[in-house]
Amino acid sequence: MSTPRPTSEFHAPNAPSANVDRLVAALDAQDAADGVRRLRDWAYEAVAARPGEVAVDIGSGTGTVVQALADAVTADGSALGVELNPGLRALAEQRAAEAGSTGRFVEGDALALPLPDASVDIVWCERVLQHLADPERAVGEIARVLKPRGRAVLLDSDWATTVLHPGDPDTVAALTSGALAAAANPYAGRKLVGQLSAAGLAVGARGSQALLQDHNSVAWPLVRMLGESAVRRQLITEVQRDRLYDDLTEAAARGALHMSVTMFGAVGQKSPSAT
Ligand SMILES: C[S@@+](CC[C@H](N)C(=O)[O-])C[C@H]1O[C@@H](n2cnc3c(N)ncnc32)[C@H](O)[C@@H]1O
After folding, report:
1. Cβ neighbours of residue 101 under 8 Å, at least 6 residues apart?
2. What is the CATH number of domain 12-158+183-210+265-269?
3. pTM, full prediction
4. Would the pLDDT of 96 be above 80?
């Protein structure tokens, strides 16, 4: 039996108890991040949604992407968000209504999509697979619901690409291992193309973006979470932790801090002859 991992609030079993306001604040901050915006722009172009198409966003969060897909497919098509967390789904519905969007949302699980076989032209799945213990099953579901010639775009982080500078490299490595432990599928980004291929989809365009934190201020909630976890797991001492915090604070004060993680994207297409 595999060892259960400590996982984020976005992990499926945590969905009912998660604090929705905190999740929304985190997702809104990510929506505004340059790296996320650039990778989405690349993905919108790569997947090229057309008027009249059926588009689905799996793990649709606050619904930002569903609204964009709804605009692209126009009222002749349809855009649907599938979301496990009822609080996020309700918020996404409210935001779409306020924006006059035709996007719709349903509660549903990426591991058992509430959609018929071969019914969707475009599937979008962004930063969801990292929260799943069985991401291959979710990609299999994506392939199942795609129509022949349908396209899927998978976007995900790879937490082993976390860079934090300055600081003692051993101490930083202990924090990075905390980042790896915080996701059910921490190497999600590098696995995307293999999962598309294994699901029988032809891999097309690929993209990537680093998500850069601000260089003038330490992202304290994240750094403290990782630092405290490293101390608890006895990977570093409290003295090493405090020295790292001091180094980061000093670097931020002179605009010299670097903190980043890389996101990857890949488009897969179902064969025209698939049934
Ligand atoms: C990091 S958020 C990303 C949200 C959105 N895709 C975005 O990029 O802004 C992960 C999302 O996946 C949802 N999620 C997690 N496990 C899921 C599952 N098994 N089925 C459907 N949604 C799931 C979470 O509730 C959350 O909305």
Report:
1. 63, 66, 67, 70, 71
2. 3.40.50.150
3. 0.94
4. yes
